[in-house]
Design brief:
The structure is a single chain. By secondary structure, this protein is α+β, with helices and mostly antiparallel strands. Helices cover 28% and strands 37% of the residues. It has one domain: 2-Layer Sandwich (Alpha-Beta Plaits).
Length: 123
């Protein structure tokens, strides 16, 4: 589509990965690693947010920070592995959601800003 119109990418081309973390400092560190290693084109560090969840049989209420990670779907597994190595939680929330439509120029940029499918850890 011309002129930056919204387009529907291939069903699995791009994803948003949502991760909650305990602090903005931890979020900045994880975000910088993901973008620096070209596993993500952009990471928004949002917060504080309030999370209410069940853990070990008890309802918990905590202040957290939300990472919104934009990446290629082909990189979601690598993003998950990297987040797990950097994350302080025993069971971190790592949820991938497919991008079903988006601005064509933005999606083109996302593709250029992340590792291509032909690249691997040794590249």
């Amino acid at each position: 589509m011309a002129g930056g119109a919204v387009e529907a990418p291939a069903v699995t081309a791009y994803s948003i990965v949502l991760v909650t973390i305990g602090s903005a400092d931890e979020g900045e560190r994880i975000a910088a690693a993901l973008v620096g290693e070209e596993l993500a084109a952009c990471v928004n560090v949002i917060g504080p947010i309030r999370s209410i969840y069940r853990w070990e049989g008890q309802v918990q209420r905590d202040e957290e920070v939300l990472l919104v990670i934009k990446t290629r779907t082909a990189l979601v597994g690598a993003v998950e592995l990297r987040v797990r190595t950097l994350h302080s939680y025993q069971t971190p929330e790592i949820i991938a959601v497919p991008i079903v439509a988006g601005s064509a120029p933005y999606l083109d940029w996302l593709a250029r800003a992340t590792r291509g499918p032909e690249m691997n850890e040794d590249s």
